[in-house]
Write a structure and sequence with these properties.
about 130 residues; alpha/beta; Ubiquitin-like (UB roll); Translation Initiation Factor IF3; 2 domains; IF3M factor
Length: about 130
């Protein structure tokens, strides 16, 4: 069973990797170091370690303050809100520019229903021959 991706935040003292690439709170690279050295730095400066990238060798961790972690969580939540949701459905409707009045009214009612159901609607109008 694969592990679920954890939310962005402090990893505390549970670091599964032996060698880490550490970045300080100002964004400067401190290079590769053993996890004990990273924990010592964390305690010394009163900071928290946050995993940035796990899929690289060695994994990248950053020393951050609680305020920096909070701000980053807010940024990520805002970005997630703006991204399209996977369950969102797009409906497409096309009709000719020479459409009859009744047909146009029927299609506008259908569009209104889709909008009420929070679907994205794309309307295409073709030029009549």
């Amino acid at each position: 069973q694969p592990k679920r991706k954890a939310a962005f935040g402090s990893v505390g003292r549970r670091i599964p990797h032996r060698v880490l690439h550490v970045i300080n709170q100002d964004g400067e690279s401190l290079g590769h170091m053993h996890r004990a050295e990273a924990l010592r730095l964390m305690d010394q400066h009163g900071l928290k370690l946050v995993l940035l990238r796990e899929n690289v060798e060695p994994p990248v961790y950053r020393l951050m303050t609680g305020q920096q972690i909070h701000e980053e969580q807010l940024k990520r939540a805002e970005k997630k809100k703006l991204s399209p949701k996977p369950g969102t459905c797009t409906k497409e409707l096309s009709f000719s520019s020479a459409i009859a009045k009744n047909d146009l009214e029927t299609k506008t009612k259908q569009i209104a229903l889709w909008i009420e159901k929070k679907h994205h609607v794309k309307v295409t109008i073709r030029q009549a021959k």
